[in-house]
Design a protein that fits this description.
The chain contains twelve helices and ten strands. Strands 7-6-5-4-3-2-1-8-9-10 form a ten-stranded mixed β-sheet. With about 350 residues, the protein is α/β, with parallel strands linked by helices. Helix 1 runs parallel beside helix 2 and helix 3 crosses helix 5.
Length: about 350
Amino acid sequence: MMGTYQLRQCVWEITLACCFSCRYCGSGGGKARENELNREECLKLADELAELGCRRISMIGGEIFMRPDWKDIVERLVGNGIAVCIISNGYMIDHCLAQELKKLNIESLALSLDGPACIHDRYRQEGSFKRVKRALGVLANAGVPTSVISTLNSENEKTLEELYGFLTDYPIFAWQLQACLPMGNASRSGVDHRFDVKRVIRFVEDHADAPFALGIADNIGYYTESEGSLRGNRSGVAVYKGCQAGLTVVGIDSVGNVKGCESLYDERFFEGNVRQRSLKSIWEDPEAFSYNRKFNTDMLTGKCASCDKKSVCRGGCRSMDYFAGGKLYESPCCARNL
């Protein structure tokens, strides 16, 4: 099984503790879960990920800096030869923390920034925009490679041009636009997650000369005329190749539950827990991740079933399909079908 499904990337939520409780947080961050993996369990898991050949970790929360031993975990991962990208709301990042991040030799830090101050603060916390702005500055001064991730909804999609102008003043290397998923706080607070997908794609097309890599995430698309250069790679051949949950990607939450994708925030998608079974045994289980590993195009429904890109796209992002459309094999927001 390992030869068939080679683990390449992991999204690891090391704590649910957060200094925010954002209106559209898919995981519902705020308080740490009871009985989160302890330091020794996390270090063991870091070794298991390396043994399975995982080469890149996106470390998320909550807010990872709320966890006292976050540096120990990062050090073990980096020491094992794994590239670490930390995703943060930026609130706690000051000069001292930026210097620590530089010493840890992480691959990058991605800051969440969802619009100009009035919008960003309303969805997150009063004063949070100023903290992100501070973080952008101190990270640049420390030489930490920095990117920005914006979670789109019906309101902030209209402010992309303004946010673009702001970001061009900072030496970020990438800006990713991702769709808000109607799960967790986004579902409970009634945030309107819908936005004009085609307009966002046109925005990316119109800014092909941006001073940083500008692209859309895998839950937006798919296969419009400019597909090959929309995902932060200007080569023209960087096309979406279908949901990789359980194929090359795994998600792990703060209490050790393993999923194909950390955005599949539903117990239905739990494949096991690292406290009961090794990550290796879960990943190599022939019955695990069956929604993707046993996929065939006959499972597709709606317009996806007759699409000429169905064998490559495979119905788009599973988490978007499930949470926004209620179906696993039919994209509710494919730009080709809108």
